[in-house]
Amino acid sequence: MFHRVNVASLLMIVLMNKMEYATDILKCLLLRLVDKSVISKHPQLMLRRTESVVEKMLTNYMAICMYDYLKEYAGSSLFLLFKAIKHQIEKGLVDAITHDARYSISEERLLHEQISHSVVMLHIVQDDLDEKVQCKVLDWDTISQVKSKILDALFKNTPFSMRPTIHEVDLEWRHGRGGHLILQDEDLTTKTTNGWRRLNTLAHYGVKESAVMSLVARQNDSYNLQYSNKLQPPYNNCTLINIDYSHRLFAPTSSNYTKLPINTPPMRPNAKFKYFESSGDHA
Hints:
The chain is an alpha+beta fold. It is 30% helix and 18% strand.
């Protein structure tokens, strides 16, 4: 499914400057899809699930054709709708790996697990801000999810392309006089069960109501060395291999877990990496 979506998107990118040719191709493919759907058991399901390349191509084609209209007229209303849905979804738990949500509007992405949690109000202090900014999060949010919500609160009137990303900042917990602690999704305090590491949450660190937080520039420590030099974190279903040590880091799609080998050796400076697609489960 994912590969077909990518193929459709790449095809439309290639054909963007030849829209007449793209229209002819799309018409031909749609006619074949209609003929195929008519003889199927459930013809009414056509165009509902975007299961074929042509269906995703049609979505991209419509988006390109409607770009000017969306930009000039409907864009602001759609943005408000997006923000409203996002706000509603983030009221409940969202799986950090699969992105299944407790308050999802899609039944296929519904988080069925019942997990007790509570709302935590954070006070955000930044050197360039005169006043504290309040941000409502959940105690079971991962550190990356908390950073994302704080960025939304701090840069709510800033274009997304001009905002820092969660990979460019660290979350600093300020407690008492001179008490500063950098919170991370994975660190030396991360709990491991049967070879699986649970991503750290606010509850893991014991963060309580009215805690004072701040976003600071990302620090390159030994634990996050693989993310330095503008390397992005490993993508889902990919394997990161340190050639010097034949050392593997797995990033499966299991809920809020990342499988790592125990007693990971330190990485050498200037180590080379390659990404390989994972075809199945790893022992």
